[in-house]
Write a structure and sequence with these properties.
246 residues; alpha/beta; six-stranded parallel sheet; 8 helices; 12 strands; 33% helix; globular
């Protein structure tokens, strides 16, 4: 309570210095023109998927686009490619539906789910030494090759941050055009009173940083390699409509 009172006093002092009363209930501007709404007009879902794949390749990110029944083969090849001996993954029903724990066991990969009920320090230690982290993305943004993660509970942030290789799985039907539609998607989920966590990550390719000499380095502050497995929509399934902006 003391901290809240101190904050109010601080804000009141700023308003006083500016010579005006405190402002409350500020409304965002209602723009007459929204050019970003027209950037992807005319593109169907297949064209958004192709743009998403092209964006990933520009980010040095490998991508496999496969039907769900071929997922075990692609997943196994990926484990072999990266010589995976240990893996940490989300405690997520979507990964269990794909039999990720079973596939890891068959490949003799040491693995653990991110279960918050266990020893947190031990789990963090395991994630820090794991070869790969595996999550399921809630959405993808075609313009930038970005994946959107709803973190929280068994969907720990460190799974996508600590291991040197990050593997992300998502449904191709969940791909949206760009960041504005991604933000609208989050707002839509909140309006529908779905379980939207406080932490939402937008991840675009491998970790990279540049120094003063413009040398680009990968994997300094997170995974140096990212592999995306894009699950094809089943025949006859309808793609969900993109959220409306405004």
């Amino acid at each position: 309570m003391r901290s809240a009172l101190q904050q109010e006093d601080f804000l009141n002092q700023i308003a006083s210095k500016l010579g005006r009363p405190r402002r409350f209930g500020i409304k965002p501007p209602a723009w007459e023109q929204k050019p970003y709404e027209r950037l992807h007009q005319g593109l169907d879902q297949e064209e958004l998927i192709q743009q998403f794949i092209a964006s990933l390749k520009e980010l040095r990110t490998e991508v496999d686009r496969v039907p769900a029944d071929m997922f075990p083969d692609v997943f196994g090849s990926m484990l072999h490619q990266f010589q995976v001996k240990s893996a940490v993954y989300w405690d997520d029903p979507r990964l269990f539906d794909l039999h990720v724990p079973k596939l890891l066991t068959e490949q003799q990969v040491e693995h653990r789910a991110w279960q918050v009920a266990g020893d947190e320090a031990d789990l963090r230690s395991f994630a820090a030494r794991a070869d790969i982290g595996i999550t399921f993305a809630d959405a993808g943004l075609s313009e930038t090759g970005t994946v959107v993660l709803f973190n929280g509970g068994g969907r720990g942030r460190l799974v996508s941050l600590l291991p040197p290789v990050y593997v992300v799985i998502l449904q191709e039907s969940s791909i949206l055009p760009r960041l504005t539609e991604g933000a609208a998607y989050v707002q839509q989920r909140m309006k529908e009173k779905e379980d939207v966590p406080a932490c939402i990550n937008f991840i675009t390719g491998p970790s990279r940083t540049g120094d003063i000499e413009m040398d680009l380095a990968f994997g300094v502050h997170g995974p140096g390699k990212v592999h995306v497995i894009l699950l094809k929509t089943a025949n006859g399934a309808e793609n969900p409509p993109s959220p409306q902006l405004g």
